[in-house]
Amino acid sequence: MSIEQLESLSWQGLYGLAEQLSSLLPVNLEIRQWKGTAHYDAAFIARELKVIVESLAIQENNDYGSAAIAGEESEGLRALWYRLNTTVMLWVEADNPEGAAWLAANLPVIRGYARSFREMLAGSESSRKLAAENSLLKKELSAMLSVAQEALLVMDPDGRIVELNPAMSSLLESPRTQVLGSFIQEWISPGDWEHLRAARDLEERTIVPERSGRSRANWKIRVKPVYDGGQLATILLQVEAEKLEGKKYLFQKQTTYRFEDIKGTSAPIRTIKEMSQRVALSEVNLLILGESGTGKEVFAQSIHAASSRKDGAFIAINCAAIPDTLLESELFGYESSAFIGNRNESKAGRFELADGGTIFLDEIGDMSLHLQGKLLRVVQERKVERLGGMEPIDVNVRIIAATHRNLDRMVAEEKFREDLYYRLNVIPLHIPPLRERKEDIPLLLEYFMKNVSLKYGRMPKRLSPQVLERLLLYDWPGNVRELENVVEHFVQLEIGDLVTLQSLPAQIRGQIPGVMAPGRRSTRHLEENHEKETIIQLLNQLGRDTEGKRMVAEKLQVSLPTLYRKIKKLKIK
Ligand SMILES: Nc1ncnc2c1ncn2[C@@H]1O[C@H](COP(=O)(O)OP(=O)(O)OP(=O)(O)O)[C@@H](O)[C@H]1O
């Protein structure tokens, strides 16, 4: 029966309604009769019930703490209902003894209303409770996330990032507000996203992020899907930037450097740059040799970017950064049956991924003899075999290998396969250490000062002439990387815009030129050569008379007699 029909019914009374309705409703319904009123009509009651039902529907999302009041007057009768929290009260001012009988007769109709009333109330009540619980849970979740040291991220099944903590935002090097709402696919490859989405339970994997900020570290990911009613509802991610114990990365697949990024105008750097630009155009494998921090990787990337393979992948892998067995499966891939462990998937190796492009095997001197043998096969036959795979797979990959080790000596000591050495070493590129091209130092200082200041949003600082002089005297065992770090140190210092001697890092301040800096691996011979060179430079600058020599001794922080002894010993004219 509709409200309209109910409205047309005549008034029968009120008594008994309250009790009966209250037993049907999840609320206390009080219907009160106010004495002194002549009559009442059913239409009015029905309208009131309608108002209650509709108001409840409208107010579903309202704050239940506030009272909702609706009232109506009709022919001197007044009904007032209100709801405060879960209590609904309907007061009716009427005094009609026939009411009870009428209500009893029409109870099924009233019950129908009561039922929908109850359902609505129950629905709105449970959604209110749920909303309250949800909002509390959300607050608890974000509090938990904010105190966690691990980088954590919550996303929906489409990869939309709905929450992340400060550790994650710093790992992504982006403010939280900027990341919220973006998609994880902006940070990782489609293949890696597919794997994350397909995870059935807690899973771990290492991936190479598409964008990972300056660290260029790989991500060790723990992924946990959350299901609701059999449907994937949320994906939780814990990300750890791979700890590389001093290594730069395990894998990497973008190039960021071009030849124009290689700064330096000295003869040695110009020569090696020109040579690299020439060989970039050929297809030969390359071996880049040089001390740590000289820019071997910068060269490898620039060569790839200038080669005909530039549209193919550049896959870098650090052979010293991971254990041999993992390196083997990473390089060559595996078939499900063969891989030891609980994985049941097949995986392409880095050689396959680099097909049509370049593979950069960094720290090749650290590769085991066993893997050197397998690598030789790839170099010779241009085919790889996955672990446990039956069919060799053709790969068209250019290999650029690099090492800071002395491979000649390793070959002599039978620690590096001679046949592989000759295959890779078709055109060796020696990157000179910074101390052999000191004229590049001012340019590099200026270049890094500009870049690093920009990165930290600070004003570039000037170097005092004494600081510049000391930096020119220093022998830079960590090469360009060390120089970049020193500039970073300057930029971060809370000093004025002038860097003075006091601000120099200890290793540079403390170094008397020619005395080996801690960690330096150069030989005594190199050290003496360098000392000799430094003294000659200073004598040329300051003069060879006694006054000049006194100043040179002062600069070198040695006594005048010591300087004379050194001049004699090093046969300086
Ligand atoms: N000529 C250069 N111009 C500008 N920046 C350079 C140059 N050479 C090196 N760098 C910078 O120095 C740092 C070290 O370079 P890179 O990582 O290529 O050295 P590496 O020889 O591969 O070191 P390692 O042997 O430790 O792997 C990088 O940050 C790079 O940007």
What would the keywords be for this entry?
Rossmann fold; 5-stranded antiparallel sheet; 22 helices; 21 strands; DNA-binding; ATP binding; transcription
Précis, in short:
The protein is α/β, with parallel strands linked by helices and 573 residues long. Helix content is 43%, strand content 18%.
Provide structural commentary:
It is a single chain. The chain is of the alpha/beta class and 573 residues long. It has 5 domains: 3-57 and 75-128, no CATH class; 148-241, PAS domain (Beta-Lactamase, 2-Layer Sandwich); 259-432, 3-Layer(aba) Sandwich (Rossmann fold), CATH 3.40.50; 435-509, Helicase, Ruva Protein, domain 3 (Orthogonal Bundle), CATH 1.10.8; 522-570. It contains 22 helices and 21 strands. The strands form 6 sheets. A 6-stranded mixed sheet has the order 10-12-15-18-11-19. Strands 6-5-9-8-7 form a 5-stranded antiparallel sheet. A 4-stranded mixed sheet has the order 1-4-3-2. The longest helix is centred in the first third of the chain and has 41 residues, at 107-147. The chain is flat, with a radius of gyration of 39 Å. Mean pLDDT is 74; it is low at 1-22, 24-42, 55-97, 338-343 and 512-523.
